[in-house]
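Pasting two entries for a bug report.
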Amino acid sequence: MSYNRDEYGWKNGLQPNQEEFNEKTRLQQPVKLQPSWEENNLPEDELNFKSLTMDEANLQLNTPPDRYNLVYLTFLVHGIGVLMPWNMFITAIDYFLKYKLHESYIGFAFPHAPNFMQYLTFSSQVPGLLFNWMNIFVQMGGDLNSRIVWSIGIEVVVFIVTVILAMSDTTAIPYGFFWITMICVIILNMANGIYQNTIYGMAAKLPGKYTGAVILGSNISGTFTSVVSILSSLITSNVRMAAIYYFITALFVLLICFDTYFALPLNKLYRHYELKEKKNLETQKRIAKGIKERPPYLYILKKSFPQLLNVFLVFFVTLSVFPSIHSSIKPSDENFFISEKFYTSITCFITFNVFAMIGSWLPSYVIWPGPKFLWIPVSLRLLYIPFYLLCNYQVEGVNRILPVLVTNDWVYWVVAVTMGVTSGYFSSLGMMYTPRLVEEKYASIAGMFAGASLITGIFCGILMSFLWPWVIGHVGN
C-alpha cells in the first residue's frame, strides 16, 4: 500500500505524524471478529475459563445427571471394599482357631490361640487408626488419586499372600504362620486406613448422598462377608478349600474396586465436581498470590467437631456391643422358635448387618433430625450398652454375678433390630453432615476427619468391649 507524500508533508522534509499514520493504516485493514470473552480478562467466576476446554467449561457450569446411578454405585462398591479386610479376617476366625492353629492340625496346644482375637484386633485397628489420622496431615503417596491406587494395590498383594498361606501346609511352622498372618494384617490395615480415609475425602466433593453410599456399602460389607462365609462352607466341607474360596472372593472385590476407581473420572458428574474443586483451589492460590498455604486444620476441626463427635459415638456404642456382647447372648426361653444352634447367627449377625444396611439406605429418602439436633438420638444410643449387659450375656469361664433382667427373647431381638437401624442411619447422617459444616474448598479435609472419627470410634469401642466380661463377673449382688 502506498501513501501520498504531499498528504503527510514529506515534500517539506518533515516526518509523518506517527499516530495519525497508524490510525489511518488500522482503518484501511479488514475487520476481524475476536473471541473477546477469552481476551477481555473477565472475572474468573463469570466467563474466564482460559485454562479449560469448551467441554470442561460447560461441565463446570452445568451439573450433569448421574446416569444409571453409576457414581453412586461406584462409591457403594468402595464402601464394601473399605471394610472388607476387617470383616474377612474376623469372620474367618474358625479357619484360624479350628484349623490352622488347632491342636489336631499342629499337634500341640498353641499358646496364643486363646488370645487370638485380641492379637487380631490390635493388629487390625492400631495401624488403621494411626494411618487414618496421618493421612489427613501428611501427604502420603501424593494426592488422593495416587493414595487410592497404592492402598488398593497393597491390599490385593496381601490377600494374595493370605491365599497362598491357606493353600500351603503350615503344620511345621505354626509360629511362623501366626506372625506372618499378624504382619499381613498390620500391612493390610495400614493401607486400608489410607484407603478408607481417602474414599471419604473423595465422596465429600460430591453431594451428601454419595458419602451415604460409602456408609451403606460399609454396612453391606458385613452382610456380604457373612453370606460368602456360609456359601464357601456349603460349597465344600474342606475347611482349607472353604478359606481359599473365601479369601479369593475378597481379592475379587478389591480388584473390582480398583477397576471402578479408574472408571470414575470418565463419568461427567464426577468430573463436574472435580472441576469445581479445581476452580476453588485455583482461586485460593490466586488470592494467596502464589504463597503455599497449609489448610486450616484447627479451624476445620472446630467447625466440624459436633458431627465428628456424633460419628465417633455411633461407632463407639456399636462396636462396644457388636459383636462382643451381642454374639455371646444366649436364649432365655428354651421354647423360642429359633433353635440355639442358629440363635446367634440370626439374632446377632444377620439381624445387625441387614438392619444396619437398611439404616444406611434410609437417608436417601428421609433425613431427620438436622445437624443441630443429631446429638440427641446419638447420645441416647449409649443406653444400648447397659441394656445388652442385662440380657442373658454369658462368657465362657466367667461366673456371672450381674443379674439377668431382660429375659424375653422377643424384647432382646426387637432392640437388636433398632440398634442395627440406628447404627446405619445416624452414622450416615453424621458422615453426610460433616463436610457441609465447612466451606466447599475444605469439604474433602472435613470428610477425611469424619473417616478418622469413624475408625477412632471403632477402635475405642473394641477396647471397651474387653471390659464387659469383668463387669458381669464383678458387678452385682
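Entry 2 (this is the one that rendered wrong in the viewer):
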Amino acid sequence: MRLKTAISNELDANAAIEHIKLSISIEGIKAIVCYYTEAYCNQNLSNVLSRHFPNIPLIGCSSCKGLMTESGCHCGPVIGVMAIYDNSPYSAYGTANVSLTDCNDFKQAVNSAINKALSKANRVGEVPDFIILHATPGNEERIIEAIDAQFGTQVPIIGGSAADNNIAGNWSVFNEDNESSEALTLLVGFPSIPIATGLSVGYSPTEYYGLVTKAHGRYIYSINKKPAKQIYQEWLRVHSGLTILDEYLFDYVSEFPIGNVVGYIGSQPYFKLSHPIRITEDDALEMFSESKVGETITLMTGSKKHLVERASRVVKDANTKNYNESEMVGGILIFCAGSMLHLGEQMTEVYKKISAQMNKQPFICPFTFGEQGKLVGGENAHGNLMISSAIFYDSEHYL
C-alpha cells in the first residue's frame, strides 16, 4: 500500500482536477480522499472528480481557508487529494453520502450510509478496520452514536466536520454519487496494512471546574446552578486576569475552551474539548459540541507554543504503538480550524514539526469545524479544537 497527495490552486474545479491528474496515476487507486476550500462548493466537485477518476470511491469535505500536505501549508482557494493505492486482493473501500435535510432519525440515516458503503466494498456484514467520517456541522454526536450502535463495537473513526471560511454555511461534503451542504459522507476501509488512530486534546485542565446543571443540545444554560456566562467569565477572569466583553469572547476561546470529562485512566481524568461560539441573550453558552446535565466541565488552557507542539506529538504518540517498529506509509490528520486561525502564521511551524515527525511521508490535513475520533479510553467522540489522526504502517514488519 502507498499514498500519494497532490494539490491545485486553479480556480476552476475542472482545471484543478486536470492539474492534479498530472501528479497522480489513476492505475491502482483504491480510493481518493479530497479536501477543498469553499470556492469549489458550488462547482459540482463530486461530478468533476468522478469523470476524471471513474469507478473509484471518493470522499470529500470542505476545509476552512486552506489545508496542509507534506509539501506545505496551502492557502485557498485550493483542492488537495490523497490517493490510496492498495493492490492487495484482501483490501476494500466503499463510500456513501446520505442527506440530513429534515432528518429526524439519525440511526436510520447512518445505517443506510454504512450499508451502502459496505455493499460497494463487497463487505456486507463485516466490521471495517476504520471509517473516515465527514458531516456538515450540527449532529455529529448522533451520527457517532449510530455508528457505534450499528457495529456493536467502536470502530476507529477519523473525522472532521465540514468547514467554510466564515461560519456562513458555505460548506459541503461529497462522495462519487452526490454532493450536499447538509449531509454525512463516510468511507469504510479494509486496508492491507495496519492503521493507528487517535483523537488528541492537547490542552491542560485548570483548577476551575463545575457541574452542568442545565443544558440542552449545544447550549449550556447553567453551571453549578448559576448562569453559564457568569461562571465561564469568572473562570477566565480569575485564571488569566481577562475581563472579556461578550462580543469579543470568540477571540479567546481557542486559548480557553471547555473540557468535558469523559472518563478516567486510573485517577486522572481525560477530556474532550468544547468550543464556545457565543453568549446568548439569556446568558447561556452556545457551543460547537454537546454537554449534558450532570457532566463535569473544566476550564482548559493551551498556549500558542503548546498548540504548535501538539500536532507533531499526535504523530509521535501514534508511533509509540509502533507495530513492531513498522515504518510509516503516511496518514490523514484532521486539525481544528479554530486552532489554525488562532495560530495564524505559526501554522508554518506546525507544518514543519508534523512533516519532520512523519519522516516526509505523505499526509493530508484539512481544517475543520469539529473533530471526531477515538479517545484514549477507547470511546469514539466528537469535540472541538482537537486533532484526529490515522497513521498507516508498512505491513511487512507487522506480526
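Dev reply: Rendering is fixed now. As a check, the viewer should reflect this: The CA atoms of residues 18 and 102 lie 36 Å apart.
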